Amino acid sequence: MKNVRRPSLIFGLVITAVFFIGFFLFASENSNGLYVLYSGLALGAIYWIWSIIEVTGADDLKRYQKTFWLIIVVAVPFFGAFLYNIIHQSRNKIAA
Questions:
Q1: pLDDT in the model for residue 59
Q2: pLDDT tens-digit readout, 26-78
Q3: CA atoms of 85 and 51, how far apart (whole Å)
Q4: Rounded Cα distance, 62 and 6, in Å
Q5: Where are the domains of the chain?
Q6: Rounded-to-integer distance, Cα 61 and Cα 26, Å
Q7: Integer Cα distance of 85 and 81 in angstroms
Q8: How far apart are CA 19 and CA 29, in angstroms?
Q9: Alpha helices in 1-96 (DSSP H)
C-alpha cells in the first residue's frame, strides 16, 4: 500500500502507541505515566494540526471531497485525521 509510506500515517501510529503506553503506565500508578500521557496528547495535537494543513493543501481532492475531509478531521480530532491518512491515497482512489 502506498499510504503506509506516508510520514503522517507513521507519525499517527507512533502517537497512538505513545498515548496508550502512557495511559497504561498512568493506570498502573507509575510516576512517569502522566508525563508520557501528556506527551502523547501534545503530539496528537501537533498531528491534528498537521492533518488539517495536509487536507487543505491537497491538490488531488475535489472541492466537495476536501470539504468532507476537513469536516471529519476538525470534528473528530485525532481519529478523523488518522482515518484520512489511512483511506486517502491519491485522486479518486481509496485504499483497498
A1: 83
A2: 888 888 888 888 898 899 899 999 999 989 988 888 888 899 999 999 999 88
A3: 8
A4: 21
A5: 2-94
A6: 41
A7: 6
A8: 15
A9: 7-27, 33-56, 63-75, 77-87
Q: How far apart are CA 29 and CA 18, in angstroms?
A: 16
Q: Which of 75, 20, 68 is nearest to 12 (CA)?
A: 20
For position 75, what pLDDT does the model report? Answer: 94
pLDDT in tens, 76-93: 988 898 888 888 765 545
d(CA 86, CA 42): 21
Place of cell 485525521: 81
Global pTM reads 0.77
State the DSSP string of 20-31. HHHHHHHHTT-T
Polymer length of the chain: 96
End-to-end CA distance of the chain: 8
Provide the residue type at 60 as one letter: D
Report pLDDT for 95. 46
